[in-house]
Amino acid sequence: DAGRGLTSFTKEVRTVRCPDSDGVRNIVLVDTPGCNNSFMTDSQVLAEIAWWLIKVYEKNIKLHGILYFHPISVYTIRETAARNYNIFKELWGKDYCKNVILVTTMWGQVSEEVGSEREQDLQSDFWREMISLGSTIRPFKGTTESAWNVINSLSVSGTDGRRPLQIQREMVDEYLPLQLTAAGRAVANRLLSLASDLKYLKKDPKR
To answer: By CB atoms within 10 Å of each CB, which of 20, 64, 184, 198 scores lowest?
Structure first.
């Protein structure tokens, strides 16, 4: 995400090619919008990411892995963060969790002790299911060395560990429309929940 704070400003999927630290290979990093986006709805964000994933999968290109960023400076898991996380979990699917790195950021805004405590809380609660399915946690401390440590934690050698994301299998292999994929249903369920809450508020304006 290109934003420097907690809000996403990325409007489209963008790729950046950079030389690997081994001096031999090139690595392609893909920046995507997040569901905490200032300019796009969750449905638009999901569609933007899904169409890009479909295009690369149809070319038989599989991702090495996913880096999922979370600010360690945030004390509690807000509704937006939980929504973003739940939608992306459905996008990549349980079988892909081994290829997901949960990256904690903004360590400069908290002490090492506080950051470590919050990371432990994430590991034992919010991210527990992902970790049980093979995901790992890595801190990004704002340095070039730290960035390469995160990138190198992915299995970037060879193609044995590459596998399609759940949404790629659903839309390309199973011919499902976006709204019927697991991620699409997660977005729709969220909209239905909001509509239900709004209806209840209209009935009980004093709430």
So the answer is: 198
